[in-house]
From TrEMBL:
It is a multi-pass membrane protein. This is Mitochondrial potassium channel ATP-binding subunit. It comes from the Eukaryota. It comes from Dicentrarchus labrax (European seabass). GO terms for molecular function: ABC-type oligopeptide transporter activity; ATP binding; ATP hydrolysis activity. Belongs to the ABC transporter superfamily. ABCB family. Multidrug resistance exporter (TC 3.A.1.201) subfamily.
Length: 650
């Protein structure tokens, strides 16, 4: 699929032949891993983690965006209604996943309370030395075990469901985006880089899928757990919870201050790297010393940033440990006053750790969500694109009454990517039915542009192109390209399938007999049957296992199989050696009989038999006639002939 897209987007030739037919789940690194075992009142730890993480996160986000995009592209808007269209078919699975995740989160809230119960049993046993310890502990222990089991099952369940939803949504998005890209006209591929398109099909969709799964699963769990455990904390000990809430704003304030300083440093470092990357594009030897200075500066800022983060982590470690100590101290006081049991203290510490983990995970998820939304927005931007030249709709001319006469009337044209550069200026030309017209002229004069306009790869800026007196813009494009015009150019695009499939690409419903007949007309049958696998021979990627002349004859067969009324040959033999050219020319001579033919040629020797030869210069036709007429005129054409003969002798 991607190969097809690269093929379509990288050069116009493949685009033309196509146009004729028409998890790694990224788990965010937990910040402050060193603090893993700290049992601190969560809210307090979170502020530290949150701000520290934001600094990292910002650096990460920027690192993923190409310099060019950071500099120029505004982030497109995320369209929720488009996402809804993809999610709708998976709604049942999604609701199931949400319910299971919610259930798992509720059970997670119960676990600290159950642990507290267990500790109370142990403490009572120590205090009262009861003999039936096993009997007493069995029930709460089994309950806890059951809770762990159910929680595990629910977790597996929602992860399975969510990954199913994520994969299907991503696959649907990829298919729809690919189809949407294939519908675009050639001007779109002129303006957009292949890498960018492939990136949207792969990296952006992957990023969106990972974020989607992560945000729903962990987001739901974390929010539920945070709220639930907070309620538990309050129920266990309103006093301890109150203490926590008093300390919180101080820590959040300090964290915010240091966090904003670190973010500033991170931004500075990013800007430095960005400037370096941009400057490098234009850098000459003379400015290399300056660039080294830039690199040193960036290194210095990064070192400062590293030191800042390290100090921040160290300080938050100390703060968190002190808070655990403080909680145990305050809890111990409450226990000694019989206002709290040891089990309650245990529950408080475990619940607060759950809140701490959940809040830290929410802070990570926030960064992930921003990334996911911008990836999704980039994908949706291309999904919503409408081609300026629609592939279907419009009239058709019945085959029996189609004569194949083409008129270019007062055509002016500039490529959309270069609107100021006019290629054709009031260009006029008629291709009479069943006649061969050749266009010659200097390189870059606009000959291939005439063929592109006839194929409707672009529409003229002004003027009209008519088929049998009808403006081609009013005709059904799929019919026009698929049945009326056959196009053969210098670089035929073959796909890595069999010869049979490659020829059938011109007319998907063709029978084997039709394929063989087209191959015979194209002088290709003999060499194809000479292969051990005949028509089933696989031609290799882009036809690498065939010679230039063989590829060209398969392309001719592909064009002939649809029995087109008009044939466009754009430098069809110019890439071939003399022997291959002779064989291909023979095929072409046969193929052009009885059709309206437009030949664009470099080698003038190949078009001497044309009914009309037109010489192009400065965007219009300046001379026209047969070979002999033009020679006797002694104008531009005879000049070109003379020059080519002189070059041939060299
Ligand atoms: N896709 C495009 N976008 C912008 N400009 C283009 C595009 N394709 C061609 N051009 C420009 O249009 C002009 C005419 O190109 P065209 O290919 O029609 O010339 P040509 O006469 O066929 O040349 P040659 O004989 O070398 O094939 C050239 O200046 C070329 O640079």
């Amino acid at each position: 699929m991607l190969q097809l897209l690269c093929c379509r987007a990288s050069i116009t030739a493949p685009v033309r032949s196509l146009a004729v037919r028409q998890s790694t789940v990224r788990t965010p690194k937990p910040p402050g891993v060193a603090l893993k075992f700290i049992l601190g009142p969560a809210v307090l730890t979170v502020s530290a983690r949150l701000f520290c993480h934001v600094a990292h996160c910002e650096a990460d986000v920027n690192n993923n965006i190409p310099v060019e995009a950071v500099a120029k592209n505004p982030v497109p808007e995320f369209k929720w209604h488009i996402l809804w269209e993809f999610v709708k078919p998976q709604l049942f699975a999604l609701i199931g996943a949400v319910v299971l995740a919610f259930g798992a989160a509720i059970l997670n809230i119960q676990i600290p309370l159950m642990l507290g119960e267990l500790v109370n049993v142990v403490a009572r046993h120590l205090r009262e030395q009861t003999r039936n310890y096993v009997q007493e502990i069995r029930d709460p222990a089994l309950k806890l075990l059951g809770l762990y089991g159910i929680q595990g099952l629910l977790t597996s369940g929602y992860i399975i469901l969510l990954s199913r939803v994520g994969e299907r949504v991503a696959a649907d998005m990829r298919k729809t985006l690919f189809a949407s890209l294939l519908r675009q006209d050639v001007a779109f591929f002129d303006a957009n880089k292949t890498g960018q398109l492939v990136n949207r099909l792969t990296a952006d969709i992957q990023e969106f899928k990972s974020s989607f799964k992560l945000v729903i699963s962990q987001g739901l769990r974390s929010v539920t757990q945070t709220v639930g455990c907070f309620v538990s904390l309050y129920i266990i000990s309103p006093k301890l919870t109150g203490l926590t809430v008093v300390v919180l704003p101080c820590l959040v304030g300090a964290g915010a201050l240091i966090g904003s300083f670190l973010r500033k440093l991170s931004r500075l470092s990013q800007e430095q790297v960005m400037h370096f990357a941009q400057d490098l594009c234009y850098c000459t030897i003379s400015c290399i010393r300056f660039e080294f200075y830039g690199l040193d500066k960036s290194c210095e800022i990064n070192e400062n940033l590293g030191t800042g983060i390290a100090v921040f982590q160290g300080m938050s470690n100390i703060a968190l440990n002190c808070i655990v100590l403080g909680t145990i101290f305050a809890g111990g006081t409450l226990i000694s006053r019989s206002e709290m049991s040891p089990g309650d203290l245990m529950s408080f510490l475990v619940a607060s750790q759950t809140v701490q983990r959940s809040l830290a995970s929410i802070s990570i998820l926030f960064g992930q969500m921003v990334r996911g939304l911008s990836s999704g927005a980039r994908v949706f931007e291309y999904l919503a694109l409408k081609p300026t030249i629609p592939l279907s709709g419009g009239g058709r001319i019945p085959y029996n009454s189609l004569t194949g006469r083409v008129d270019f009337t007062d055509i002016s044209f500039s490529y959309p990517t270069r609107p100021g550069h006019q290629i054709l200026k009031k260009f006029n030309l008629t291709l009479p039915p069943s006649k061969t017209v050749a266009i010659v002229g200097e390189s870059g004069g606009g000959k291939s542009t005439v063929a592109s306009l006839l194929e409707r790869f672009y529409d003229p800026t002004s003027g009209v192109i008519m088929l049998d007196g009808l403006d081609i813009r009013t005709l059904d494009l799929a019919w026009f390209r698929g049945q009326v015009i056959g196009f053969i150019n210098q670089e035929p695009v073959l796909f890595g399938s069999s010869v049979m499939e490659n020829i059938r690409f011109g007319k998907p419903e063709a029978t084997d007999a039709e394929v063989i007949n087209a191959a015979k007309q194209a002088n290709a049958h003999r060499f194809i049957t000479g292969f051990p696998d005949g028509y089933n021979t696989v031609v290799g990627e882009r036809g690498v296992t065939l010679s230039g002349g063989q590829k060209q004859r398969i392309a001719i067969a592909r064009a002939l199989i649809k029995n087109p009324s008009i044939l466009v040959l754009d430098e069809a033999t110019s890439a071939l050696d003399a022997e291959s050219e002779r064989v291909v020319q023979e095929a072409l001579d046969r193929a052009t009989k009885g059709r309206t033919v437009l030949i664009i040629a470099h080698r003038l020797s190949t078009i001497q038999g044309a009914d009309l030869i037109c010489v192009m210069s400065d965007g219009r036709i300046v001379e026209a006639g047969t070979h002999l007429e033009l020679l006797s005129k002694g104008g531009l054409y005879s000049d070109l002939i003379r020059r080519q003969r002189a070059e041939g002798k060299k």
